[in-house]
Write a structure and sequence with these properties.
Strand 18 and strand 19 form a beta hairpin. The protein has 3 helices and 20 strands. It is mainly β and 307 residues long. It has a 5-stranded antiparallel beta sheet. A 4-stranded antiparallel beta sheet has the order 16-11-18-19, with no helix packed on it. Strands 1-3-5 form a 3-stranded parallel beta sheet, with no helix packed on it. It has 2 domains: 57 residues, no CATH class; 185 residues, no CATH class.
Length: 307
């Protein structure tokens, strides 16, 4: 038999692995409702630069602000996309999206109570209130802080308690253009007002919003106002141009409800409708009931005698 073969020689070393690919720059997104200080801010979304066969691509920078502010800082290694800021569906007052108003007492929101007092901050409006009116409505493109941000396509609707007495269970519905407040009924020459919110029939309540009530932060949603305090001022962002507004509130002798059509920019209107007292069955004194029973009994006796 032949002998065993000899061992093979040592193999050569393996080739070097290639350098890994570089990471891309990613996306940086900055959205705001009102202008913020961006001067001096730098954004760098440059991809990986280590030598290798696959260079890292540059990233993206997305910036959007509802008051048309532009980014004031520097951008490196990124394509820039401009967009709009965050919007809130402004229910309960209408089914349209609107920007957040910064620095309201309960935080950013598209509607809610303001820090103003009508008799102090809007004396010219209060000076024009006609006798008997308890509410004034003012529409502004830009107002005093915190309503000093111009939102393209929107304006501020201020609902003011023009009296030293609370307005109970205040309600508000707003319509403009594609957001109708009127419903046409067959056979009617004009439309009639309809409810907009979930509480139909009736108008949706003015409400407090803000982060504490926002479901996104664990809240249960906007909270209806039990009253608008004396000289209190409520705000809602509405579409620019003319709007139709319907309001309702309670006073000592009943409910006031009025429809105000075609309110334009920098226009003030007043709710002058008289309160309508709640209908009720008149109270009858017990002596009156006894007298009525006696009269009925006498009538019955007379009827028996005749028959």
């Amino acid at each position: 038999m032949g002998g065993l073969g000899s061992n093979g020689g040592t193999s050569g070393t393996g080739g070097w692995g290639e350098t890994g690919g570089n990471g891309a720059g990613g996306t940086i997104k900055l959205l705001c409702s009102a202008a913020i200080g961006t001067a001096g801010v730098s954004v760098d979304a440059t991809g990986g630069t280590i030598a290798g066969p696959v260079p890292g691509g540059n990233g993206r920078f997305i910036f959007g602000c509802n008051d048309s502010a532009s980014f004031g800082g520097s951008v490196t290694g990124a394509t820039v996309t401009n967009t709009i800021g965050p919007l809130r569906l402004i229910l309960p007052h209408g089914a349209y999206p609107a920007p957040f108003i910064p620095n309201l007492p309960l935080g950013p929101e598209a509607f809610g109570r303001t820090p103003f007092a009508a008799n102090v901050d809007f004396p010219a409006v209060i000076a024009q209130v006609p006798p008997g009116a308890r509410m004034a409505i003012l529409k502004l493109g830009v107002g005093p802080k915190p309503l000093n941000h111009a939102f393209k396509g929107y304006e501020y609707l201020l609902v003011m308690n023009a009296s030293a007495f609370p307005l109970l269970r205040p309600k508000l519905a707003v319509a403009s253009g594609g957001f109708p407040l009127f419903a046409k009924v067959a056979g009617e020459a004009s439309g009639h007002s309809v409810a907009v919110g979930a509480g139909a029939p009736g108008l949706p309540s003015m409400a407090d919003g803000g982060p504490a009530n926002d479901p996104a932060f664990g809240g249960s949603g906007p909270q209806p106002l039990p009253y608008l305090e004396p000289w209190g001022v409520y705000v809602a962002l509405v579409p620019e141009g003319t709007v139709d507004v319907e309001v309702e509130f309670g006073v000592g002798n009943g409910i006031v409800r009025q429809l105000l059509g075609g309110i334009g920019t920098d226009q003030t209107v007043f709710v002058t409708a008289a309160a309508v007292g709640a209908s009720a069955i008149p109270a009858v004194h017990p002596a009156g009931l006894a007298l009525l029973a006696l009269l009925v009994g006498l009538a019955a006796m007379q009827l028996r005698r005749r028959t």
